[in-house]
Amino acid sequence: MALEKVDLVTPSGGGSTSKLVTGSFFQWPLDTSAEKSLAKNVPVPISEWYGFKVKVETSGKENLIGASLGDLEALAVELAEPRFRARQIYANLYRRRLGDWALFTDLAKPLREELGQRFAIYYPEAIQVFQSSDGTRRYLFEVAGGHRFESVFIPEEKRDTFCISTQVGCAVECLFCVTGKLPMRGNLSAAEIVGQLLALQQDRGTDSKRLNIVIMGMGEPLLNYDNVMKALRLMTDPLGMSISPRRITLSTSGIVPGLERLAHEDLIPNLAISLNATTDEVRDKLIPINRKWNIAALLEACRKFPLEPRQRITFEYVLIQEVNDTPEDALRLVQLLKGLKKKVNLIPLNADPWVALKTPSEERVLAFQKILLEHHLTAYIRRPRGNDVSAACGMLAGRNQPTGNDAPPPHLTP
C-alpha cells in the first residue's frame, strides 16, 4: 500500500490539511465514490474509503501498540524520563488513539523525536472493507506473512458492537462455522488483537453511543489465552481504553482448562458458551473438541464459574435444520441448563457454500424458542447482521470478495 497525499480532518474539528502522513491512522469517513461502491458491496481498498494511509513499512522499528503501562514505565526509566511520561504516552496510544509522534504534544519535542526514531505506531493493515445493506462492516486485515483475519463493526441505534478475532484460522473446526474450514495459521498477538479494536474505534468516529466488544470472531480465544488476557487488560485499563469488563463478552467453544483458568483471574469478561447441541453424539460431530471435554464437563465448569449477582452466562445455540432443532432438543436444553444463571441466544444457521448444513424454517425456530420460554428459560433469537457481505456469525473466512462461492476451502483444495 503506497503512501499518498490525503486530506485529513483533525479530531478537534479543525479544517483539512494536505500532507503526507506516515504512521498515522486517521479514519474519518469521507464523501467519496468509494462510499458508493461500499453501499453496493463492491470491495475497495480501505484507504480509498477513509482517506488515510497506514504505515506498513516500519523500517524495523518496534511497534508500541500492545505495550502495557509497565512496559512504557520501563522505557521511561531507560530514557531517563520521569515515570509520568509513560502515562502520557499510554493515554495517547490507547485513549486518544494518536498515530503520529508529532501529535504527542504533551511531550517535549526532543523526546518525540527520539521516540520517533526508535518506535513505530501502527495497527494491523486493513486492506479491504465490505459494507452490508444493514450498515454492518466487515474488515479484512493482513499481518506479517500475508495472513489474514477479520473484524466486524455492527452499528445500532443506541449502541455499537465490535466483533474481534484472536487467531488466524481456527483449530476447533466446528462443522457449522466457515472459519473452521480454514487451516490454522497461528495466534494473533496482543498488539494485533488490540490493534484491530483501535482501528474499528477510529472508524466509528464517535464515542457517544455505548460500545460492546464481543470476542467472537475468528479463532478460539481460550487457545490463545495469554495474548487474549493481555489484550483484555489493555482494553479495560482506566488509564487507557477504559472499556468496562461488563461490556466485553468472550465466547468459547468449551475449552474447559481455559475456563477453569479464567475463573481465577482478577479480570473476567462476560462469558458465552457455544453449546449448539444437547447430546454428546451430536456435539461430537458439530464441535469435535467435545470428544475431549464433553457436555457434562463443560457445564460443570460453568456451574463453578464465578458470576456477579446479576450476571449470567450466555449459551449460544446455532439452530441447524433436522440436526439440533427438534422439540426434544429444546426440552433437553431446558434440563441441561437447570440451576445455572443463564440466558440462551438462538442463532439460525447462516448458510454458506462451504457449510453443507441447512437453516431451519422460521416456524421451527419460533417453535424451539416457544418451548424454552414456556419453561421460563430466557431465550432470544439473534437475527443475522451483515450476512450479505459474509459478516454474520460463523461466516468469517478472510475472503476478499463480499460473499462466499462454491470454490472449496483452502485446505481442501487439491
> How many runs of DSSP E, i.e. beta strands?
16
Strand fraction equals 15-25%
The mean pLDDT is 85
Q: What helical percentage do the residues reach?
A: 25-40%
Assembly context of the chains: single chain
CATH fold description of the largest domain: TIM Barrel
**Mass-distribution shape:** globular
Unreliable sequence segments: 1-57
Q: Based on the structure given, which CATH architecture of the largest domain is correct?
A: Alpha-Beta Barrel
Spatial separation of the terminal alpha carbons = 31 Å
> What is the CATH class of the largest domain?
Alpha Beta
Strand order of the largest sheet: 5-6-7-8-11-12-13-14-15-16
Structural class: alpha/beta
